[in-house]
Structures are given as structure tokens and as C-alpha cells.
């Protein structure tokens, strides 16, 4: 009987040890996942660690990826009933004012991302990582990933890119902000596109015309 108990005790210890090793390997694997980096962002936002946030959020890349959303929204809002030729001109007219749109969006995007991830602050770190399927939809393709919230009351959609052993946020989708900016510049863009005043302003052959367009864009976005 003693031998049986001794064998059972050894077996239990062995199983526990094997489970601990398996858990360790599993956690190490998860440390290379997008959801692990997202959990780090949530923690950094909770403790107001701007340095950590800066290391995990590429604001320049996010802004570059965000500006096409504005153009798409402008076309969606103001392009109804327009001919394909005018819509194409509309997209071209938007090109020279994209720096203005970027300047407008750049300070707003990090704040929005911080607000969105802060909504996950009540979720324990291990659950965001190991239980990501419950909260997030994570699609990984090579070194890029799309991370989307499954919770309607906590909207979040990020593009993340692998950088070394971490994933950085390089894209952010926000319909509300894109719609707001598009609403403020869309009518102006459509008016220029319909007037066909494209050569001087969108192609840069008329510096005065381009400067005027940029000036008006800045006024609209203020």
C-alpha cells in the first residue's frame, strides 16, 4: 500500500511538473503574440506610462494609414450621384491636402487609441493574453495582424506589425474621426473636382493654386 501511495505521489508531482513546463512554454509562445503587446499597451495606459506607450504605438505609421480613411469617407458622403470621372478627380484633389489632414489627425489618434484600450483596463493581463479569443478577434498574416474587439461596448480595430519580439500598433480605424474630418473637407473637395480645377491645384503645376487649396483646407479643419 505504501509503495502504491509513493508511486501515486511521484506521478502527481511529475504531472504537475509537466503541466508547469507546458504552461511555461505556452506563455512564452504567447509573449510573441499581438495580444500580448496589446495587453502591455493596456497596462501602460492604466499606469500612464507614456514611454512604454511610445515604444508600442507608431504614431507616424498610424497617421499615414488613417488618412486614406478620410478620403474614402469623403467619397462615400459626397460622391453619390457623381460620375466615376469626378470621383477619380476627387481622390486626386485630396492628395495635396493630406499633409493638412495628417496634421489634424496626428494629435487626436494617440488619445483615441489610449481611450479605446483603457476600456479593457478592468480585464486582467493574463485574460487579455491567454483568453484573447473571448475579447478579441486576432488575424495574423506574416508580420502583420488585425486586432478587433468582439465586444460591442468596447469598439477597437487596430493594425499591428511585428517589430523584433513585440508588435507595434501601426494602424487604427475610427469611423467617427474619419467622418468628422471628411465632413469638414468633403464639400470643398467635391466643388474643386466638379469644377475640373485639377491641373493647377492637384498636380502642383500652379504653386499659387496649391497654396490656396492648402490654406483653405487649414481654415476648414481649424
How would you describe this protein?
With 222 residues, the protein is an alpha+beta fold. It has helices at 2-30, 34-46, 50-56, 59-78, 84-94, 98-105, 108-118, 125-130, 132-135, 175-195, 207-221; strands spanning 136-141, 144-149, 157-163, 166-172. It has one domain (31-221). The protein has eleven helices and four strands. The protein has a four-stranded antiparallel β-sheet with strand order 1-2-3-4.
Rg estimate, integer Å: 25 Å
Instruction: Kindly state the percentage of residues in helix.
Output: 55-70%
Distance between the termini: 84 Å
Biggest pleated-sheet summary: 4 strands, antiparallel
The gross shape turns out to be elongated
Classification by helices and strands: alpha+beta
* Contiguous helical run count: 11
Give the overall average pLDDT: 74
State the strand order across the main sheet. Answer: 1-2-3-4
Low-confidence segments: 4-28, 197-207
The overall strand count is 4
Please give the domain count: 1
**Strand percentage:** 5-15%
Q: What is the element string, with H for helices and E for strands? A: HHHHHHHHHEEEEHH
Amino acid at each position: 500500500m505504501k509503495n502504491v501511495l509513493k508511486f501515486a505521489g511521484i506521478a502527481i508531482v511529475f504531472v504537475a511538473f509537466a503541466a508547469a513546463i507546458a504552461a511555461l512554454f505556452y506563455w512564452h509562445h504567447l509573449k510573441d503574440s499581438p495580444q500580448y503587446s496589446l495587453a502591455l499597451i493596456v497596462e501602460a495606459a492604466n499606469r500612464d506610462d507614456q514611454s512604454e506607450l511610445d515604444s508600442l504605438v507608431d504614431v507616424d505609421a498610424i497617421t499615414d494609414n488613417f488618412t486614406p480613411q478620410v478620403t474614402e469617407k469623403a467619397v462615400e458622403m459626397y460622391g453619390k450621384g457623381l460620375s466615376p470621372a469626378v470621383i477619380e478627380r476627387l481622390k486626386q484633389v485630396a492628395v495635396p491636402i493630406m499633409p493638412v489632414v495628417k496634421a489634424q489627425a496626428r494629435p487626436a489618434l494617440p488619445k483615441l487609441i489610449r481611450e479605446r484600450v483603457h476600456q479593457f483596463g478592468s480585464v486582467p493581463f493574463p485574460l487579455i493574453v491567454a483568453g484573447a479569443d473571448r475579447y478579441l478577434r486576432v488575424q495574423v498574416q506574416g508580420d502583420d495582424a488585425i486586432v478587433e474587439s468582439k465586444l460591442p461596448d468596447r469598439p477597437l480595430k487596430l493594425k499591428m506589425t511585428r517589430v523584433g519580439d513585440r508588435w507595434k500598433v501601426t494602424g487604427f480605424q475610427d469611423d467617427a474621426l474619419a467622418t468628422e474630418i471628411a465632413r469638414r473637407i468633403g464639400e470643398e473637395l467635391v466643388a474643386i473636382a466638379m469644377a475640373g480645377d485639377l491641373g493647377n491645384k492637384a498636380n502642383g503645376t500652379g504653386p499659387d493654386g496649391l497654396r490656396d487649396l492648402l490654406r483653405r483646407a487649414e481654415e476648414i479643419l481649424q
